[in-house]
Amino acid sequence: MNTLTKPSIETSCYHCGDSLPAKPYNSGGKLFCCLGCKGVYQILEKHNLSAYYTYNIVPGKLGKKNTSKI
To answer: What is the pLDDT of residue 65?
Structure first.
C-alpha cells in the first residue's frame, strides 16, 4: 500500500513560535523569524544544549509576570 504524505511547511519560528517572515532565517534545517532567535539556537547547539527545545513548548516566549502588588 502506497501512502502519500504532503511535505510540511513550517509557519512558525523554531525558537519563539512567532510567525515567519516571507524570507525566514535558516540554520540546521530550522527556520527562524529573526537573527536573535537563530543566534540563540546556534549558541545552544554549539554547547550541546539543544535538549532545551525538548523541555519547552515555546522556549523563546516569556511567561506572564505577576504584576499585582501585595
So the answer is: 53
Phi then psi dihedrals of residue 27, to 5 deg: -155, 125
Residue count of the chain: 70
Cell of 7: 511535505
Contacts of 58 (CB under 8 A, 6+ apart): 16, 17
**Taking the model in full, what pTM does it have?**
0.69
Q: 31 - beta bridge partners?
A: 26
- Of 65, 53, 64, 47, the C-alpha closest to 17 is 53
Task: Using CB atoms within 10 Å of the CB of residue 68, give its burial: 0 to 12 exposed, 13 to 18 middle, 19+ buried.
Answer: exposed
